[in-house]
Design a protein that fits this description.
single chain, Lambda Exonuclease, Chain A, three-stranded antiparallel β-sheet, 7 strands, 207 residues, alpha+beta
C-alpha cells in the first residue's frame, strides 16, 4: 500500500486517479449484494479513454448536491470528532503498491480507522436513516465503496457518517468483509485487463 499525501481534488490527486479503478466507483465492479457488476466493461472503457487522453474525459462538473457535500463535510467531521472524542485527519490518496487501483477516504481515524462522510439533502438523508433503522445494516449505496477503501488502505474499520446539519445524524461502524474484498480484487484485475485491451486498440488507431 502507498499513501500519496496530496490534497483531494487537486491536479496531483486527479493525476494519480486517472485511468485506474477507484473506490468511488467500486459499485461498478461489485454490487452491495456481492453480485459481479454488469457495468465493469463500460467502466473499463471509460478508464482506457481517460488513460489515453491523460485526463478525465467525463463531462461531469459537479452538482448542487456534490458542492453542498464538500461545503458541509468539515462540519460533519467536527461533529464526528466531538461524538467520538477523536481527531480525524485529512489523508489524500491511497493506492496498492503498484499503483493499479486506489481510494480517497475522507479522513483517517487513529492508527486503524477510516471516516467516510455522506451529506445528502434532507429527503435522501431521512430515507437512508429510516432504512438503516429498520435493517440495522450499512446502506447499500455506500457498501462497495467503503469495503474498497478499507481494502486499499489496509485499515481495520470504517465509520460511515450520515450527516445533516438540521436533522439527526448517525455513525455506522463497518468492518472488513473479506469475501467481498476478494471479489473486488478479482474484478479489479478483470477491469484492468479490459482497460488495457481497449487502450492498446486506441494506441494502434492513433499510430
Amino acid at each position: 500500500m502507498k499513501h500519496h499525501n496530496t490534497e483531494q481534488n487537486s491536479e496531483a490527486w486527479d493525476s494519480l486517479r486517472n485511468g485506474i479503478p477507484t473506490a468511488s466507483r467500486a459499485a461498478d465492479l461489485v454490487s452491495a449484494t456481492g453480485k459481479l457488476s454488469d457495468s465493469l466493461p463500460r467502466y473499463a472503457e471509460e478508464l482506457a479513454m481517460n488513460m489515453f487522453a491523460g485526463k478525465s474525459l467525463s463531462t461531469f462538473g459537479g452538482t448542487k448536491s456534490t458542492d453542498r457535500g464538500h461545503e458541509i463535510e468539515p462540519v460533519a467531521a467536527a461533529w464526528y470528532a466531538f461524538e467520538r472524542d477523536a481527531e480525524p485527519k485529512e489523508c489524500g490518496f491511497f493506492t496498492d503498491t503498484l499503483e493499479r487501483y486506489g481510494a480517497s477516504p475522507d479522513r483517517l481515524v487513529g492508527e486503524n480507522g477510516l471516516l467516510e462522510i455522506k451529506c445528502q439533502e434532507a429527503k435522501g438523508h431521512l430515507k437512508t436513516l429510516l432504512t438503516y433503522k429498520k435493517s440495522k445494516k450499512p446502506p447499500t449505496s455506500y457498501y462497495s465503496q467503503t469495503q474498497m477503501e478499507m481494502m486499499v488502505t489496509e485499515r481495520e474499520w470504517l465509520d460511515l457518517v450520515l450527516f445533516h446539519p438540521d436533522l439527526p445524524s448517525t455513525i455506522i461502524r463497518i468492518e472488513p468483509d473479506m469475501e467481498f474484498q476478494k471479489k473486488l480484487k478479482s474484478q479489479i484485475t478483470a477491469c484492468i485487463q479490459h482497460r488495457d485491451s481497449i487502450l492498446n486498440t486506441l494506441q494502434e488507431l492513433a499510430a
